[in-house]
Amino acid sequence: MSAPSIPNLLSLRGRGGRGRSRGRGQGLGGGSGSESRGKAHDATIQGTDTDAAVSRLSAVDMGYLSDPYARYFVSSLGGPPARRFPIINRGTYTRTAAIDHLVHSFLSEATGGAQGQAVATKQIVSLGAGTDTRPFRLFSQQQQGRPNLVYHEIDFSVTSAKKLKTVEGVPSLASILSDRSTRETRDSDWSSKPPNGEYYCHGLDIRQLSHASTTTLPGLRTDVPTLILSECCLCYLSREESDGVLEYFTSRIPNAAVVIYEPVHLGDPFSDTMVSNLAARNIHMPNLERRRNEADEAARLKRIGFETARQLTIDRIWSKWVNAEEKERVDRLEGLDEVEEWQLLAGHYMIIWSFRGEGFEGWRAIE
Ligand SMILES: C[S@@+](CC[C@H](N)C(=O)[O-])C[C@H]1O[C@@H](n2cnc3c(N)ncnc32)[C@H](O)[C@@H]1O
């Protein structure tokens, strides 16, 4: 939703956003055969992070979100950053606020260890993290009673290297992810030891992760409650690859949860247009192309080993989770004339959260 790389009403109108289209499709190489097509597709998928970063900054600049770090990940070389339409800004706001709500609830829960002892450490693994700013926001908050946080981000090596370069060039980012080290298993892996936890950035194609995979993730803890986050990432994988990635973690970590944000294909004309718009941009989302309904994803997660699965579309989250005062504030920012368009668009994106074991008690009350 915040990424125009994901199909939306604007692309149905033939435009990707209010501003210029930027940073799409990074240098697709020549060559022939399925390998070079695969690499070209990977490069296109890597480019979707630029769209996500631009959308985040648009929502920040318009007052929807407060995030002092978003601007550092958007290039200002081509002039002022693009502005998204109000409907997209509201989507970015709702999705970010909803994931923040689940993350904060997970982190603020004090119990969940064996025999109810306090849990001293919690872990987040962000799949396809791109240039997400959440770790900067979390590590800069020194909240009393917060558990020690181990935060992993995984993305292609080109993206993890780019993130490191940005962090090293911006003092306010470098001071949060301080005490950095690049001596890890892979060239583009790097890590940091902020005062209140540990941070790891892994340059890795997540399709290498599966139940039987021998790939290691330095710093991964298997003994602490772990939240796996996929904000528009697993949807680019086949169903089998996506299952394999989740099983990599569930087969190793007993207390685990997952939060997935992605478009949902409801098999209606809107979804069909989404799929063909993406295909025109050489973007394929196997998860989306498969005709399915909202319950299908919950059934899949239960099959993988999660016990409880809940989900809401973004329009339902806006209605149920955003309180009246906050709705008024957001409404005042730009206004939103296209209420039906909002409901149609936001009804085709969902957040699903699913968990098993200890450390997620607070989530039982969230619905
Ligand atoms: C739409 S962006 C979302 C970025 C970030 N999660 C956010 O919401 O701001 C999708 C990200 O998933 C990453 N990604 C997709 N497939 C991947 C794979 N197989 N391995 C690693 N990263 C992948 C892309 O490189 C890209 O950074």
From TrEMBL:
EC number(s) per entry? 2.1.1.233
Q: Which GO terms describe its molecular function?
A: protein C-terminal leucine carboxyl O-methyltransferase activity
Q: Where is the composition biased (Gly residues)?
A: 24-33
- Region annotation (Disordered) ranges: 1-47
Source organism superkingdom: Eukaryota
A GO biological process held by the record? methylation
Which reactions are catalysed by this chain? Answer: [phosphatase 2A protein]-C-terminal L-leucine + S-adenosyl-L-methionine = [phosphatase 2A protein]-C-terminal L-leucine methyl ester + S-adenosyl-L-homocysteine
Query: What keywords is this UniProt entry annotated with?
Result: Methyltransferase, S-adenosyl-L-methionine, Transferase
Key word Methyltransferase present in the record? yes
Q: Which Gene3D superfamilies match?
A: Vaccinia Virus protein VP39
Signal peptide start and end residues: none
Q: Where does S-adenosyl-L-methionine bind?
A: 95, 128, 205-206, 231
Q: Which major enzyme category is it?
A: transferase
Query: What is the similarity comment for this entry?
Result: Belongs to the methyltransferase superfamily. LCMT family.
What is the annotated role of this protein in its UniProt record?
Methylates the carboxyl group of the C-terminal leucine residue of protein phosphatase 2A catalytic subunits to form alpha-leucine ester residues.
Q: What is this protein called?
A: Leucine carboxyl methyltransferase 1
